[in-house]
TrEMBL record:
Family: Belongs to the NDUFAF6 family.
Comp. bias intervals (Basic and acidic residues): 263-278
Gene3D superfamilies attached to this UniProt entry: Farnesyl Diphosphate Synthase
Protein name per UniProt: NADH dehydrogenase (Ubiquinone) complex I,assembly factor
InterPro entries: Isoprenoid_synthase_dom_sf, Squ/phyt_synthse
High-level lineage: Eukaryota, Fungi, Dikarya, Ascomycota, Pezizomycotina
UniProt organism field: Lachnellula subtilissima
Gene name, Swiss-Prot/TrEMBL: NDUFAF6
Keywords associated with the record: Membrane, Mitochondrion, Mitochondrion inner membrane, Transit peptide, Ubiquinone
Length: 343
């Protein structure tokens, strides 16, 4: 059930200005889950922007509570008159209409997990270590993918397992992509990704502290020297390599599953809330079918891979303006990947 153009316009504006890759990738999501996909991704944009739009963490916490309340009301069939909530409610209504009796409690819990995790880092604190960064990525970007799969609906350990690794790669990469604007925030009320760095406000270097320590990166030297700060490129390389490792793992798992083989290793989140699976769903034939059904949801791997390749091309200089430009190759690279069911 798609919304009328007048209601979707604010959502499309959000995507065009803040997340053009997700706008491109909606084409590959099943039409039945597209409203859900758009509302989930739009909410993620809104949450990600809160630290840039508020004056202090206390105000930010109030905005986070605003979204918790909106989600609660939406799942209670009383959505507020807000574009994201209206679109999400349409998606939930459609899901229940196609599958009478289906429970959406897990989806609500996943939304709350995303909001709570975003709030935890609303003050742009650094991650204590690489594992904390991976946990952040799992609880945000992997969870966004679980939500979209649930909207199909698809409850599959095979697909969730691949989505977990892709989400970790996407989340880690998102932190790298956001580093320049967090370290050198533009002047207030000028939230433009193309603005030059150095707007005068104090920023933060939100990289894992263990990686920074190992590479010898000091925050004050990043503020003074930017990309030439000692050890910074080494730290970026280490973090980008971890993101790429997750993409490689996902790609290998995908190939195994498509051939009816075992994924290659156990799913670390099996048994957690939302990740309970019926035994019959783990047969090789059903896994192949599940991967086929959910493949469109896995497509964020494509822009993530393209960006990491571009970062490597520019010698891991995170401040290069080319890294902030839209990738004109994404539409046809995505079509190529989707048509061949490869990442």
């Amino acid at each position: 059930m798609l919304m009328e153009p007048g209601h979707t316009a604010p959502i499309l504006y959000i995507f065009r200005n803040f997340d053009s890759p997700s706008h491109v990738l909606q084409t590959f999501v099943s039409p039945q889950a597209r409203d859900a996909y758009l509302s989930i991704r739009a909410l993620n944009i809104e949450l990600a922007r809160i630290p840039d739009l508020v004056s202090n963490p206390t105000v930010g916490a109030l905005r986070m509570q605003f979204w918790r309340d909106n989600i609660t009301r939406t799942f209670a069939d009383t959505p507020p008159k807000e574009p994201v909530a209206i679109l999400l409610h349409n998606a939930l209504t459609s899901l229940k209409g196609r599958h009478p009796g289906i429970s959406t409690n897990v989806m609500k819990g996943w939304f709350m997990k995303v909001i709570n995790t975003r709030e935890q880092y609303i003050d742009n604190r650094p991650y204590t270590n690489m594992e904390a960064l991976e946990a952040y990525a799992e609880n945000t970007y992997s969870t966004l993918m679980y939500l979209t799969l649930a909207a199909l609906p698809l409850n599959s350990m095979a697909t969730d397992h691949v989505a977990s690794h892709i989400g970790k790669a996407v989340g880690i990469t998102a932190v790298l992509r956001g580093l320049p604007l967090i370290a050198f925030p533009p002047p207030p009320n000028h939230h433009n990704n193309n603005l030059a760095f150095g707007g005068g406000r104090q920023g933060a270097v939100v990289l894992p502290l263990d990686v920074m320590a190992e590479a010898g990166v000091k925050e004050e030297e990043v503020f003074r020297q930017g990309a030439e700060a000692p050890g910074l490129k080494d730290a970026i390389f280490t973090i980008a390599t971890r993101a790429n490792d997750h993409l490689i793992t996902a790609k290998e798992m995908l190939k195994n599953l498509q051939q009816g083989k075992d994924a290659g290793h156990d799913f670390e989140h099996e048994g957690e809330e939302g990740h309970e699976y019926a035994e019959q769903s783990s047969t090789s034939r059903s896994q192949v079918d599940d991967i086929e059904r959910g493949f469109g949801v896995l497509m964020p791997a494509v822009p993530t891979r393209l960006w990491l390749e571009k970062l490597e091309k520019h010698d891991f200089d995170i401040f290069r303006p080319e890294l902030r430009a839209r990738d004109w190759r994404l539409p046809w690279k995505s079509y190529w990947a989707y048509s061949r069911r490869t990442l």
